[in-house]
């Protein structure tokens, strides 16, 4: 029975969340030359749920190939991807401060969805889950947006905000999974890891 999982993610939130449920993990990160961002390109008018699950599958394919290429032990491999959807529009991680400001202006005063897909490879078996949450943002003033962007928090976060950070002050209501919004839905993740034979 495996007692450890490979986490193929550079997101500090995902590490922290796995720690929170006591899952032992080792990082399985891309080589410096590997272009991880290229996996996240959106294809035309792809629906957000389809997009986030496709990207997660690509991340997992790359991680499993890395595990084999490095001759690592056959422990389960875990990947996830988070995206924000405003209607049919996909908002990934902002490219820069200006892009972050545009995303926050678009989210202001509206309800959006946060989708996180999780996938685990265990031998030949691939286990998958999708968490979908709804977040309603207050109407933000340009000054609030500018101050939040200047804090640096939006960078590296889908939709340019962090539920676990200062953005809590903008959120009127939330429905779904707090940890899913943060990047790794712990209920669904624990279910998948149990199916893969891990104690959690
Ligand atoms: C909406 C939201 C996202 N996020 C983060 C979680 C993810 O790190 C990031 C979404 O980008 P992802 O592409 O899902 O993940 P990543 O590039 O950070 O890491 P990797 O692909 O290596 O696994 O946004 C928050 O931290 N809080 C939030 O409230």
UniProtKB/TrEMBL annotation:
| InterPro entries given in the database record | ITPase-like_fam, Maf-like
> What Gene Ontology molecular-function terms does this entry list?
dTTP diphosphatase activity; UTP diphosphatase activity
The yes or no answer to whether the keyword Ion transport is present is no
Enzyme Commission number, as recorded: 3.6.1.9
One Pfam short name = Maf
Q: Which GO terms describe its biological process?
A: nucleotide metabolic process
| Reactions listed under catalytic activity | dTTP + H2O = dTMP + diphosphate + H(+); UTP + H2O = UMP + diphosphate + H(+)
Annotated site residue numbers, Important for substrate specificity: 13, 82, 164
- Cofactors that this protein relies on: a divalent metal cation
Q: What does this protein do?
A: Nucleoside triphosphate pyrophosphatase that hydrolyzes dTTP and UTP. May have a dual role in cell division arrest and in preventing the incorporation of modified nucleotides into cellular nucleic acids.
Q: Which family, according to the similarity comment?
A: Belongs to the Maf family. YhdE subfamily.
Q: Which HAMAP family match?
A: Maf (MF_00528)
Identify this protein by name.
Answer: dTTP/UTP pyrophosphatase
Give the originating organism. Pseudorhodoferax soli
